[in-house]
Amino acid sequence: MITQQLLKRAKKRGKKKNKPKQYKNKKHLDFIHQQRCCLRDNLKDCLGVLQAHHLLKPWDGVRGMGMKASDKNVIPLCMRHHIMLHNFGNEFNFFGQMTGDPDYGRKVAEKYWNESPFKENDSD
Ligand SMILES: [Zn+2]
C-alpha cells in the first residue's frame, strides 16, 4: 500500500523544521508492549513477540495522508495475529471475524489509552 516514493517523501518531510502534527507518545507505546495480545482470549494460538499495531481506522479521528495513526491508536498484538491482520487488510472485517465485534480494535486502543499511566492531553 505504501510506495517507496511515499516513504521517501515522508522521510524528507520529517527532516524539516515544522514538526508533523501526529501525536507521539513513546512511553505509551512501551506500555502497550508490556500487555498481552488483545486477541488471546478469542484465539488461543498466539505466537511470537508482542508488537504494537497502529490502527488503520483510529478511534480518535481520521489519519492523515500517508501517515500512521497517532500513538493513542495502538493495540497489543502478538506477531502472528499482527501478520494475520495485515494479510486480512480490512480491520473491521478482521476483528468482526475474530471476535464478533468489528469495532473491537478501536475499543481496545481506547481502553488502553484511558488506562495508560502515560495518558496526557495533547493540544491538537
Ligand atoms: Zn495473538
Task: Report what the structure shows.
This protein has one domain (24-115). 41% of the residues lie in helices and 8% in strands. The protein has 5 helices and 2 strands, in the order H-H-E-E-H-H-H. It has helices at residues 4-15, 26-33, 79-88, 91-99, 104-115, and strands at 50-54, 74-78. A two-stranded antiparallel ribbon has the order 1-2. Helix 3 (79-88) packs across helix 4. The longest helix has 12 residues, at 4-15. The model has no long low-confidence stretch (mean pLDDT 86). Zinc ion binds at residues 37, 39-40, 46, 77-78, 80-81.
SSE blueprint and pairings:
Blueprint: H1 4-15, H2 26-33, E1 50-54, E2 74-78, H3 79-88, H4 91-99, H5 104-115
Antiparallel strand pairs: 1-2
Helix pairs in contact: 3-4
Bound molecules: zinc ion.
Count of runs of 4 or more consecutive helical residues: 5
How many domains is the backbone divided into?
1
| Overall strand count | 2
**Adjacency order of strands in the biggest sheet:** 1-2
> What percent of residues adopt helix (DSSP H or I)?
40-55%
Summing up helix and strand content along with how strands pair, one would put the structural category as mainly alpha
The molecules bound to the chains, other than polymers, are: zinc ion
Backbone CA Rg: 15 Å
Order of helices and strands: HHEEHHH
